[in-house]
From TrEMBL:
Protein name as annotated: Ribonuclease domain-containing protein
The keyword Nuclease is assigned to this record: yes
Keywords: Hydrolase, Nuclease
Domain of life of the native organism: Bacteria
Cited PROSITE patterns: PROKAR_LIPOPROTEIN (PS51257)
């Protein structure tokens, strides 16, 4: 059955919208729109923070991690035990921790980045009490 002439524009719009939704082009891709990265499986169910929204000192620590160092603190790059159980359970040695400088602190402070073997990155600013998954 052919739609009456007055409903054809509406039918065309509905078909186009349906095709757009099926193709997954609902607003995150090109064309000048803002692209939002999908949340990776390891970060699902956690609070997240975009890397570019981290404090400047954390972004600098990320750069050092990407560059392989050198790191300002002796313990940077050491195994993180996850004794608090706030991160997903993994075998010992899966996680590594790095100090994020805290302005005004005379010691290492409370801020850390923790990385995982599979590319995970977590940020804490309260010495392992809570973590946010860092999205890049």
């Amino acid at each position: 059955m052919v739609a009456p002439r007055r409903y054809r524009p509406l039918a065309v719009v509905l078909v186009c919208l349906g095709l757009l939704l099926l193709s997954g082009c609902g607003g995150g891709g090109g064309g000048g729109g803002v692209s939002v990265a999908a949340t990776p499986d390891w970060a699902r169910g956690m609070a997240t923070v975009r890397a570019d929204a981290l404090p400047a000192q954390a972004r600098e620590t990320l750069r050092l991690i990407d560059d392989g160092g050198p790191f300002p603190y002796e313990k940077d790059g050491s195994a993180f035990g996850n004794f608090e159980g706030e991160l997903p359970k993994q075998p010992r040695g899966h996680y590594r921790e790095y100090t994020v400088r805290t302005p005004g602190e005379s010691d290492r402070g409370a801020r850390r980045l923790v990385t995982g073997r599979d590319g995970e990155i977590y940020y804490t600013d309260d010495h392992y009490q809570t973590f946010k998954a860092v999205l890049r």
